[in-house]
Write a structure and sequence with these properties.
The protein is mainly alpha-helical. The chain folds into two domains: 188 residues, Arp2/3 complex 21 kDa subunit ARPC3 (Orthogonal Bundle), CATH 1.10.1760; 99 residues. It is built from eleven helices and two strands; from the N terminus they run H-E-E-H-H-H-H-H-H-H-H-H-H. A two-stranded antiparallel sheet has the order 1-2. The chain is flat and about 60 Å long.
């Protein structure tokens, strides 16, 4: 592949990631947001073009994200959140010749980004931790609140058979034949039943992740509000407690709704796998 074609593919991936990054399901107060799979396109740049172009695409994404309003309190914090953090997503390119290389590489890239933003939160935003909560725990919860749901959503998307086929079509066009052969050599075939079951399990995990994160956010917001207002836990009127919860957890309903949708999709996929299993059993009896 020529350098011009690689740069073009990388630019398209960065453009898609940037556009999706502007469509936030909700934004965190000190930076970070859940987006519709914006991180995935940086990982795809690494998967298609290799780790070098993947990391460079991530750095370009971080610079573009700066233009939309970066939260920067220190140069090192800026590097961790926007340069190293987004750049780490391109590490997915190291795993592109593995079996299930895109999924594994994406998880590895997101883990790299999570490490960067975790360090940033621990070092530079510790003062926002509720009283009595360790800065590391605060950073872990804060950053997991928006990174984990998007990770799960993206994994569900790239595990869908139709999406896997679309990615494979593009891969065949942009990756050299010898590299494509190495990427698909140990892929193996997956039955329809296995796809449905895997999709259902991933969907169930995604739904539970959304619901758990929403309750973690609720507890965190309650702790912050009680600290800020000086309210004594269990000693306030129920109506006041309700108003505090309602005022400071608006995004929780959205998180729980998405979680319920994922759980419903998971139930449908698992039910479909049972139908296929029964049909296969009936066919084998007739034969």
């Amino acid at each position: 592949m020529s350098q011009a074609k690689k740069i073009t593919v990388a630019a398209v991936c960065v453009a898609m990631a940037f556009m999706l990054n502007q469509v936030a399901l909700f934004r965190m107060p000190m930076g970070g947001s859940i987006t519709p799979a914006s991180m995935l396109f940086i990982a795809l740049a690494g998967y298609w073009l290799g780790p070098v172009y993947g990391v460079l695409s991530g750095v370009a994404m971080g610079l573009l994200d700066t233009a939309t309003g970066a939260v920067a309190v220190h140069p090192m914090q800026y590097l961790l959140d926007y340069i190293f953090g987004f750049g780490a997503l391109g590490l997915a390119g190291f795993f592109r010749k593995w079996r299930h290389g895109l999924q594994i590489g994406f998880v590895a890239g997101v883990a790299g980004r999570f490490l960067m933003v975790f360090l940033s939160g621990y070092i530079f935003f510790y003062m926002w931790a509720p009283e009595g909560q360790h800065a590391a725990v605060y950073s872990l919860i804060y950053n997991a609140t928006y990174i984990v749901p998007e990770l799960v959503v993206s994994l569900v998307i790239i595990s869908l058979p139709s999406m896997r086929h679309a990615i494979d079509v593009v891969t065949k066009q942009v990756v050299p034949p010898d590299v494509y052969a190495a990427m698909t050599r140990n892929r193996g075939s997956i039955s329809a039943k296995a796809r449905l079951i895997s999709g259902g399990v991933i969907g169930a995990l995604g739904g539970m992740a959304f619901v758990v994160v929403s309750y973690i956010s609720r507890l965190e917001n309650l702790a912050i509000m009680y600290q800020a207002t000086g309210a004594e836990l269990f000693q306030e009127a129920p109506s006041r407690v309700y108003r505090i919860i309602e005022r400071n957890t608006e995004h929780i309903f959205a998180l729980q709704s998405v979680g319920v949708v994922f759980l419903a999709i998971a139930a449908m996929l698992l039910f479909s796998s049972m139908i296929i299993a029964n049909e296969e059993k009936g066919t084998s009896k007739i034969e």
